[in-house]
Every structure is written in structure tokens, then in C-alpha cells.
Design a protein that fits this description.
Layout: E1 5-7, E2 15-24, E3 30-35, E4 40-44, E5 50-52, E6 62-64, E7 73-81, E8 84-92, E9 99-104, E10 110-117, E11 122-126, E12 134-137, E13 143-148, E14 159-164, E15 170-174
Antiparallel strand pairs: 1-6, 2-3, 2-7, 3-4, 5-6, 7-8, 9-10, 10-13, 11-14, 12-13, 14-15
InterPro entries: CD200R, CD80_C2-set, Ig-like_dom, Ig-like_dom_sf, Ig-like_fold, Ig_V-set
Pfam families: C2-set_2, V-set
Domain Ig-like: 1-93, 102-175
Length: 176
């Protein structure tokens, strides 16, 4: 989320026509077309953040600027050229790193929250906790995980929450 993504198409330089077909999981389809004989491009129902990486007569790649969850979906590039037709397909999945929130509840127990991540994060504790994390799904496809530190040994003062996620791992420590 928030970064740019470039989807390469074909390395063929003799493309007569190139079509990018974008089918997002949510929302309307979008099409980008380039015709070499007219050196003309058309955009049909495309968001401003989705466009050619540069000029399509030089580079057929598609660039998505400031990637959002709404960009998830199928991206297909079709190239018609003198060497034949070429087809390249991508399924774009957007990772959203969770926000790690560590606090103490009313009873002085550490609580760790991995807020609004996609996919859901995994929470673990040092020292080890016997708690069962609770999961809350959100309408935008993100998930919040909440874990309360529970252990047999209570003599450990400093507790560390570790959040594991494909977009990166995080950890924080707290004394309640």
C-alpha cells in the first residue's frame, strides 16, 4: 500500500497494438490501448493512478502509482505484433502492514493489537503467552488481531509483543 508497482508486458519492440485489461476485485474494469500505426493511446474507465510507465512506443509496462487495496485484481496485457500475439497476466494482491499498538488494560495486563493489516498478522509474546488472539475483519479487507498477555508465571516484568506479517515484522516491549 502506498508504493508504486510496475507490471512489465512484452519485450517485443514491434508491437502493432497493445491492450491492458484491468479487472479489479471491486469496481469497474479499465482498459488502456496503444495503436502503433496511429501512435495513439486510449484510456477507458481508468483511475489516474493507473497508466503507462512511460511512452508505450518505448515501454509497454503498466505503472500503478500509490497502490491501494482497490487496485487488487487481474491485469492482462495483450500484444499484437508481426511476430505473433503475446499474452501476459498478473493477479495483483496488495499487502497492508498492520499498525502495532501495545498498551496495558485496566488490570495491568499487556494488550497487543495488530491493527488493519492485510492479510491478518500473527501475534506472539516473549515470554510465551497462553492467550488466544481475537480477530476482527473490516469492510475494506483488512483484519485487526488483538491479543492479551496471559502467562502462568507473573514474575516477568517486561513483556514483548511480536507481530509477524508478510509486509514486515515488528516488536514492542511494555511494562504494565
Amino acid at each position: 500500500v502506498g508504493k508504486s508497482s510496475v507490471l512489465p508486458c512484452s519485450l517485443k519492440s514491434n508491437a502493432a497494438m497493445v491492450t491492458w485489461k484491468i479487472s479489479p476485485r471491486v469496481g469497474s474494469p479499465c482498459t488502456l490501448v496503444y495503436r502503433a500505426d496511429q501512435n495513439k493511446t486510449d484510456r477507458i474507465n481508468c483511475h489516474d493512478s493507473v497508466n503507462w510507465k512511460s511512452r508505450p512506443d518505448q515501454d509497454l509496462a503498466l505503472e500503478i502509482r500509490h497502490v491501494e487495496i482497490t487496485h487488487e485484481g487481474s491485469y492482462t496485457c495483450d500484444v499484437v505484433g508481426t511476430d505473433g500475439n503475446f499474452h501476459k497476466m498478473y493477479n495483483l494482491t496488495v499487502l497492508v502492514p498492520p499498525r502495532l499498538i501495545l498498551s496495558c488494560d485496566y488490570y495491568g495486563n499487556p494488550m497487543c493489537e495488530a491493527a488493519t493489516g492485510k492479510p491478518a498478522a500473527q501475534i506472539s509474546w516473549v515470554p510465551e503467552s497462553i492467550s488466544t488472539p481475537k480477530e476482527e475483519g473490516h469492510d475494506n479487507g483488512t483484519v485487526t488481531i488483538l491479543s492479551k498477555f496471559t502467562a502462568h508465571r507473573t514474575n516477568v516484568i517486561n513483556k514483548t509483543c511480536i507481530v509477524s506479517h508478510p509486509a514486515g515484522n515488528q516488536s514492542k516491549s511494555i511494562v504494565c
